Amino acid sequence: MASDKSMAQKISCAYQSTYGQLVRFFQKRTGNCHDADDLSQDVFTLWLNRKEQTPVQEQRAFLFKIANHVLIDHWRKNQKQKNIYQDDYEVEEATQHYITELDPGCVLEHQQRLVLLNEALTLLPPRRREAFVLYRFDGLSQSEIAERMEISISMVEKHIAAALLHCKRYVDAGQENRSHDE
């Protein structure tokens, strides 16, 4: 009973002194504060549930060793999920592609949407179009675009958001007009 209290006190002290460090450790590596909190709690849960009850000499080092294992498990789990989603996406995309090839109406509709999208892009102001094309078609990150265009990341975000909204409205209006003509 006394050893349970002393163990609980050790864990409580370690929690108070190390929890914030663990959260920062995980946040740097995951980029997500919610995951960082969850993973930090997992570290202490694993420590509490460990079968081996030998005393831990260096608690901080021990906790960060557990943290490394938790992080590796987290990355593996995310990679598996990503692979599953990727596989599902590829199957769906292949199915859609096959169906589209069979249906001339779908092909025509896609071609019309592409024409409308091209028209929408040409109507954008040049800097907005440049930011949008670099982001959507060239695959540059917002920070890379900001650096290349010599503007702030916030401005890049505004250009991209405005371009997306413009294109969506233009394509939707064009399709609406075509459906009324038919």
TrEMBL record:
<keyword id="KW-0731">Sigma factor</keyword>
<dbReference type="GO" id="GO:0006352">
    <property type="term" value="P:DNA-templated transcription initiation"/>
</dbReference>
<dbReference type="Pfam" id="PF08281">
    <property type="entry name" value="Sigma70_r4_2"/>
</dbReference>
<dbReference type="InterPro" id="IPR007627">
    <property type="entry name" value="RNA_pol_sigma70_r2"/>
</dbReference>
<keyword id="KW-0804">Transcription</keyword>
<protein>
    <submittedName>
        <fullName>RNA polymerase sigma-70 factor, ECF subfamily</fullName>
    </submittedName>
</protein>
<dbReference type="InterPro" id="IPR013324">
    <property type="entry name" value="RNA_pol_sigma_r3/r4-like"/>
</dbReference>
<dbReference type="InterPro" id="IPR039425">
    <property type="entry name" value="RNA_pol_sigma-70-like"/>
</dbReference>
<dbReference type="Pfam" id="PF04542">
    <property type="entry name" value="Sigma70_r2"/>
</dbReference>
<comment type="similarity">
    <text>Belongs to the sigma-70 factor family. ECF subfamily.</text>
</comment>
<dbReference type="InterPro" id="IPR036388">
    <property type="entry name" value="WH-like_DNA-bd_sf"/>
</dbReference>
<dbReference type="GO" id="GO:0003677">
    <property type="term" value="F:DNA binding"/>
</dbReference>
<feature type="domain" description="RNA polymerase sigma-70 region 2">
    <location>
        <begin position="15"/>
        <end position="80"/>
    </location>
</feature>
<dbReference type="InterPro" id="IPR013325">
    <property type="entry name" value="RNA_pol_sigma_r2"/>
</dbReference>
<keyword id="KW-0805">Transcription regulation</keyword>
<dbReference type="InterPro" id="IPR014284">
    <property type="entry name" value="RNA_pol_sigma-70_dom"/>
</dbReference>
<dbReference type="InterPro" id="IPR013249">
    <property type="entry name" value="RNA_pol_sigma70_r4_t2"/>
</dbReference>
<feature type="domain" description="RNA polymerase sigma factor 70 region 4 type 2">
    <location>
        <begin position="116"/>
        <end position="167"/>
    </location>
</feature>
<dbReference type="GO" id="GO:0016987">
    <property type="term" value="F:sigma factor activity"/>
</dbReference>
